[in-house]
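Incident log, support desk, overnight shift.

02:14 A customer reports that sequence design results differ from what the structure should imply. Their input is reproduced verbatim below. On-call engineer (initials T.W.) acknowledged and began investigating.
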């Protein structure tokens, strides 16, 4: 029957071809009416049970104290944010620089583009490497200088 309904063309239908299709549609309609009636009865029974449970809950004085109402997640986040801002730290938790026993300066001597000799410069970065040998500690400061080329006006430093 499903095959008939999918290929049905009302412009070429005859009375003989419509009678079986009509009978099938009536049968399906009756089945759906029965299912609809069953679902309505089930819905009414559930509504009655829900009403009875709500009345019993009211008679007992409401929900138990350990039950918390549902709160929307957005409201909860806004409430948490408004409640307490993060306390600022008095000091950072980074390693303090040690007093260096040795300093190594890294810099470009010539401009890689034009070849001009570079001089002067400023401290661009600093890294401390702490070597812990069996003997006394040797702390080396590696200072990277950035220099500017007077011809091409570009800043140069070692990578």
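02:41 Re-run completed on a clean worker. Output:
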């Amino acid at each position: 029957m499903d095959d008939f309904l999918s290929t049905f063309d009302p412009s070429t239908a005859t009375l003989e071809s419509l009678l079986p299709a009509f009978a099938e549609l009536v049968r399906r309609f009756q089945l759906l009416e029965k299912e609809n009636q069953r679902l309505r009865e089930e819905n009414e029974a559930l509504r009655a049970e829900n009403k009875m449970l709500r009345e019993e809950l009211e008679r007992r004085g409401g929900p138990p104290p350990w039950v918390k109402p549902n709160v929307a997640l957005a409201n909860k986040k806004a409430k948490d944010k408004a409640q307490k801002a993060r306390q600022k730290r008095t000091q950072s938790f980074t390693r303090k620089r040690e007093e260096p026993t040795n300093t190594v300066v890294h810099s470009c001597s010539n401009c890689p583009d034009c070849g001009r000799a570079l001089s002067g410069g400023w401290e661009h970065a600093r890294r401390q490497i702490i070597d812990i040998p069996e003997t006394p500690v040797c702390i080396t400061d590696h200072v990277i200088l950035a220099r500017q080329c007077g011809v091409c006006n570009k800043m140069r430093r070692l990578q």
